[in-house]
Amino acid sequence: MTILMVQGRLVAIHYTGTVSAALVQALNTYRGVPAVVGVSGGADSVALLHGLLEVGAFPVVAHFDHALRPDSAEDASWVAALAGELGLPFVTARVDVRAVARRRGWNIEDAARRLRYDFLTRAARDRKISHVLTAHTRRDQAETVLMRLLRGEAVLTGIAERWGQVERPLLAVSRTEVEGYLQALGQTWREDPTNQDTDLTRVWVRLVLMPLLLERFGLAEQHLAKLACRANEDEAVLQGLAESLQPHTPWSVSLGLS
Questions:
Q1: How many beta carbons lie within 10 A of that of residue 105, not counting itself?
Q2: I need a labelling partner for 94 at 20 to 30 A (CA). Which of 58, 80, 112, 251 fits?
Q3: DSSP 51-104
């Protein structure tokens, strides 16, 4: 049970131990830690928020409205209401991402990502908070690796667990675990209608390609995510070797083969 102050009164929220072991393990490190949490209103970010409360973290709810849909303000209002119900601080910003992308010559996806992370890191800096958390899950990781593979990229590191002060603690957690957790809590979430638009590459991968792969290869999601982990380990080793090189250092010495 977690006790929160809501509108000047104490409210008990009963967590019933329904958080998956993977989610608990991922979030335990934030016990007693303040963190800015990107909350879109979708299942992943809402589960991250509740999980952080359960382990005793101190989240600040941050919502970025990309203004890409006529009804996007409804998501912002929903997240604001959720933060209010939980007695949590809330910060938001609305930016016309399409206009910024046009002005700067960026594609919309790139502009949305840049502006969203700029908002989150500024929110953390303004509050002198070191941790910025986003709710990417194993499904996101698998999709990212698969898209990079199909594009012919050589390094399949996927989504980084850490990037600057941004941390993604749910990369080992499945979507099934996320939804099961929220359903056990009786917590609803928002569904973004663009997540059904298969003209978008990631949505096509999620709704068309991945189901086909999973029919034949039932552990495809886990294996793709594991590939990203191994690629990140390899990349870290190579980066360390590169940093250890000095001018005129023989390769055999640098690699410990002498």
A1: 8
A2: 58
A3: HHHHHT-EEEEEEEE---STTHHHHHHHHHHHHHHHT--EEEEE--HHHHHHHH
- Report the b/e string of 185-223 with b at 16+ CB within 10 A: beeebbeeeeeeeeeeebbebbeebbeebeeeeeebbee
Are the CB atoms for 61 and 90 separated by under 8 Å? Answer: yes
pTM for this model (two decimals): 0.86
Distance CA 206, CA 223 (A): 16
**pLDDT, tens digit (0-9, with 9 covering 90-100), for 142-161:** 999 999 999 999 889 999 99
Neighbour tally for 244: CB within 10 Å:
12
Burial environment of residue 39 by CB neighbours within 10 A (0 to 12, 13 to 18, 19 or more): buried
Alpha helix (H) residue ranges in 108-219? 108-126, 138-150, 175-185, 201-204, 210-216
Structure tokens at 204: 């096509």
pLDDT digits (tens, 9 = 90+) for 191-227: 999 899 999 899 999 999 999 999 999 999 999 999 9
254 burial class (0-12, 13-18, 19+ CB within 10 angstroms)?
middle
